[in-house]
Design brief:
- The complex is a heterodimer of chains A (about 110) and B (about 110).
- Chain A has about 110 residues and is an all-beta fold.
- Chain A is about 0% helix and about 55% strand.
- In chain A, the strands form 2 sheets. In chain A, strands 2, 4, 5, 9, 10 and 11 form a 6-stranded mixed β-sheet that branches. A 5-stranded antiparallel β-sheet of chain A has the order 1-3-8-7-6, with no helix packed on it.
- In chain A, strand 6 and strand 7 form a beta hairpin.
- By secondary structure, chain B is mostly beta strands.
- In chain B, the strands form 2 sheets. In chain B, strands 2, 4, 5, 6, 9, 10 and 11 form a 7-stranded mixed β-sheet that branches. A 4-stranded antiparallel β-sheet of chain B has the order 1-3-8-7, with no helix packed on it.
- The radius of gyration of chain B is 13 Å and the shape is globular.
- The chains are: A mainly beta (about 110), B mainly beta (about 110).
Chain lengths: ~110, ~110
């Protein structure tokens, strides 16, 4: 089955700097890759997603890139703000199902 | 995006009792909902897939008789933790979606004493 790895597990950046989180997946047939932000004590919130027929997608300060050949995708946050501090999860959806396989998460801390 | 609600947000119960958690899709219909469990500082682990009008599909290692799932309508799925024990204490989260995007509920924190 699908396996998703995520790096780094923790990331600290200064306010205003960029943050990059990388994920790899194992099943080349996976076709949908969402990113979720989870604040303490809350459910995950979808922040951006990308489908396998697209290489890059951007939404204001957030962008996601996908390299299907290498089977990895990355989340890029520019001009980070303290409110970006949270745990970020990447996920991949195998073609054969609706449920996701999640990465282990990255705890991002944006230092003022 | 779509809104998914959960109730209650937190519950404390005694060991041996049963607890019911509700998951509702507020502005869309969901034939399928998913239930996850999350332990502190860990990722989300899928427990089961809830299917409207049919039996739920459980992941390997999840006891179907302990975690009862009912998906009686297109907007409501319930998870009942039966005979809860302290090791069942966790953060339970549901998700539902349209087409392929999944939206998560706010989660239910269960503490079993």
């Amino acid at each position: 089955g699908e396996n998703v790895e995520q790096h780094p597990s923790t990331l600290s950046v200064q306010e205003g700097d960029s943050a990059v989180i990388k994920c790899t997946y194992s099943d080349s047939a996976s076709n949908y890759f969402p990113w979720y932000k989870q604040e303490l004590g809350k459910g995950p919130q979808l922040i951006i997603d990308i489908r396998s027929n697209v290489g890059e997608k951007k939404d204001q300060r957030i962008a996601v890139t996908l390299n299907k050949t290498a089977k990895h995708f990355s989340l890029h946050i520019t001009e980070t703000q303290p409110e970006d501090s949270a745990v970020y999860f990447c996920a991949a959806r195998p073609w054969y199902g609706q449920n996701f396989v999640f990465g282990p998460g990255t705890r991002l801390s944006v230092l003022p | 995006g779509a809104v998914v609600s959960q109730h209650p947000s937190r519950v404390i119960c005694k060991s041996g009792t049963s607890v019911k958690i509700e998951c509702r899709s507020l502005d869309f219909q969901a034939t399928t909902m998913f239930w996850y469990r999350q332990f502190p500082k860990q990722s989300l682990m899928l427990m089961a897939t809830s299917n409207e009008g049919s039996k739920a599909t459980y992941e390997q290692g999840v006891e179907k008789d302990k975690f009862l799932i009912n998906h009686a309508s297109l907007t409501l799925s319930t998870l009942t933790v039966t005979s809860a024990h302290p090791e069942d204490s966790s953060f339970y989260i549901c998700s539902a979606g349209e087409v392929e995007t999944q939206y998560f509920g706010p989660g239910t924190r269960l503490l079993v004493l």
